[in-house]
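FORM 7B: Structural annotation worksheet

SECTION A. Query
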Amino acid sequence: MRTSDHIDLFDSETQEDWFPTYKELRDEFPIYQIPGSKIFVLTRYEDVMHVLRHSDRFINGYATTRHPSSQKIYEEKGFPKQSVLGTNPPVHKLYRNMVDSHFNIEGSAKWSDQITALANNLIDDFCADGEVEFLSSFALPLPAIMITTILGMPLDDFDQLKKWSAAWVLPFSGPLSEEKENWVAEQGVEFQNYILEHVHDRRQNPRDDVISHLTHGVFGDERPLTDSEIVRIIDHLYIGGNETTTFALTSGLWILLRENGLYEKIVNDRNLVEPFIEEVLRLESPTQGLYRETTQDEEFHGMEIPKGSTIHIRYAAANRDERIFENPEQVDLERKNLKRHMAFSLGEHHCPGSGLSRTEQRLAWHVILDRLPELSLNEEKNDYKHMPGLVLRSLNELHVKFKPSEPISK
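SECTION B. Predicted structure
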């Protein structure tokens, strides 16, 4: 009988190319316990869906902060690390009701002109060069500048905000030393207190932004939100509002240019942009997986999971499950179940920024295809390596070439 002893989800080679390991897990070890832990990994679509459908039995609660000294930093200098947007039913819906209208497809539409203008301005900076490192020059600043604007933070603080954002996601790369985790906590507390300054300002000087909306909003038709609640919501929205879209745009351009004939096909038929976005999200899910905790004893595929265990639901593995998606490794722009992927999760805890992300990606792709003719990968500069980590997936960089053109706003 085969065992899973050879599987190491923290191995750098595994993380560089997850997909053979995902297939092995789905086929032979659909419930896999990470050695030496109480963490159980699910990789089949229906198993992940079962967890998402039963949010009373599989609850949020897993903390990336592991060292007591790091937790103490949040307790003494800032606010709890756990976002209230990650709370569990029934209160979760009340928090989501306060933000969803700003970030769903309808709410995001009001920003369409600004997203398009920003995409053009970013391309103006490099379109005459004939080549660019796409992640840092376009995929990163576009969603980061937009979420900064939508939430209501000054763009003058953009460089510092990105440093805090990078620190925020660092624990998802894997276990950190106590010293490194304490540094992350200090950065997190600085960000929290920065947000708090803006909350205090908006109480006296409201504007048309999300911080003002939360500061003057009513929770459950009963009371205003506390400072702690607002800070933790904004903290969550800022990170979720830029990192995953950056990763999706970068992976999308890689897929677009590496697949034979795909670039020409979409250039000639812009109706294919939206299905292309969904296939990119399915194939290269920016968030590979997240955690839940069991409130009772559970069982998957004959393995007993004790109450209080951690379940790691692997969205990216489920998104390539051949039991659900025919020819799952291929880009299929006519896929019948195109939107059944779990890149933004599903159900009550689906990503609150999914609508904004899709809007940004859609508008960005139209500008890219219009403004950067004859796109190709710059093979001399690319190694196509991904950042290490268990949870997030992104290329470290992506160099492309194109036919030089003149800026349109200069």
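SECTION C. Observations
Residues 12-401 form a domain with the Cytochrome p450 fold (CATH 1.10.630.10). The chain has a mean pLDDT of 92.

SECTION D. Sign-off
Analyst initials: ____
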